Target: 2-hydroxy-3-oxopropionate reductase
Amino acid sequence: MKIAFIGLGIMGRPMALNLLRGGHELIVWARRAESMRPLLDVGAQAADSPAAAATDADLVISMVADAPDVEEVMLGAKGVVDALPLRDADAAPLVAVDMSTIAPAAARSIAARLGERGIAFLDAPVSGGEVGAIAGSLSIMVGGDVAAFARAQPALACLGSRVLHIGASGAGQVTKAANQILTGVGVLAVAEALNFAACSGVDAGRVREALLGGFAASRILENHGQRMLERKFAPGFKAWMHQKDLNIVLQSAHQLGVYTPLSAATAQLFNALVGNGQGDDDSIAVLKLLESLSGAAGAVGDAA
Amino acid sequence: MKIAFIGLGIMGRPMALNLLRGGHELIVWARRAESMRPLLDVGAQAADSPAAAATDADLVISMVADAPDVEEVMLGAKGVVDALPLRDADAAPLVAVDMSTIAPAAARSIAARLGERGIAFLDAPVSGGEVGAIAGSLSIMVGGDVAAFARAQPALACLGSRVLHIGASGAGQVTKAANQILTGVGVLAVAEALNFAACSGVDAGRVREALLGGFAASRILENHGQRMLERKFAPGFKAWMHQKDLNIVLQSAHQLGVYTPLSAATAQLFNALVGNGQGDDDSIAVLKLLESLSGAAGAVGDAA
Model:
């Protein structure tokens, strides 16, 4: 398949590489020309705009920062829609897949405007981070038309080990938002429980071990809890990205009138973490914030 | 071993039965005489006070409601301490194991006062609920003297499949409190994420399925999430018990000066749930509370 790939950052670059390895033909565009270099070296073509990239493509994939970036590359000047007059009249209708994490409402709005121009748009955010992007083992949550999903499948299969069509347009972003509720609240809850134990003078490692055997067990207690005990605060998933994603949750909840007390409480802690200059730490750094606000008999990671 | 068992409620009765099945000799006491009947029918002896139960026992186990009950059966009139003048002078020192969920500070205080009288006290709260009590598969988290723990082991092995000595006196209750932080916050977080999805018009069951493949995966998303989708609000673990346990967390955090924002936010929801007369529902009923406070495009459990 001929794929236009837009956005070659920490996530986009290894994803694009996996598409090339999967035998797809790749035309890339990135805001910074030097981001394209590693892809061109291994056989991708460069385009000088999203429109140019999309002109001969079967599929467009974007992996950018936030909703305004998606709007710009899809609907802005020299955006994907500008490719339409240049495309072969016999070509199949274009499918655009945005894999960035943006608000569900923004995804639906972009889908509606592209739909009017005959472009099928899928929202397909991912989880699994840089490690999953490199390994091609991302979890991909897709919203939008089922026929368009079927056409995008051969590409998505190169990027993720778990590719699920969730529902109509926006459903992928809603699923990602729900994921960020559970992971954001989950990281803070594990930090709170381990800090509570340490401040009570009890070995937090021993507590984690005990809790992994019961209903408190979670992948976050297992993975992030272990990193808290080792006090390894390097990312992983950066705190400022979790702050951004929780803001998507809170903005959506505001628009829909949905009561989300734990997301709201958790977002405050991420605000404080980013405000304190720790936004580039992993999100487990919420532990340090709790510690700075607590009287401690001991710290998480102290030996028994 | 000759065991005095005090408290024969929903948890205590099946636990006492498992000790009998394990070949231990049992002397039981319960506030309500009729609670003893099922145990006497299968070979337990009745005592007319905790002191009488403890007089010839090697080990005392209590499974009662809250700290004042533990204080009373251990240190009150006709409590376990009153057995001391009646015990054989050659008998090994008595070990008392409280398996109720009470505040860590209360457990330490009781341990100190019993220690002055020569009784070793272990705090050994459990998780796993009535199902685990019946199956003998409880998770048991123990704080206190290691030698006393070794003496209690043969009894505890009949009650739980996972019996862990965590640390000094109080460490078992601290671990249980940490468990209740993660399960209480966890149940509310899963309810919040699924309700967010449903209110956004997305099939919450499909979202749960997608999230189980990533870092959001937890036993609560698996088990409690499924029950939310089936809207089965029968306990399980009653909301008022979770409310009580979160109050232990908040009181301990108050005493120690520990910052516990998610426990505090979650406790408010459980307060409201109990205040609304839903305390006897399972703790997953927090979902109904979120729904009553949200504008919904759909409900958790609706088909896609």
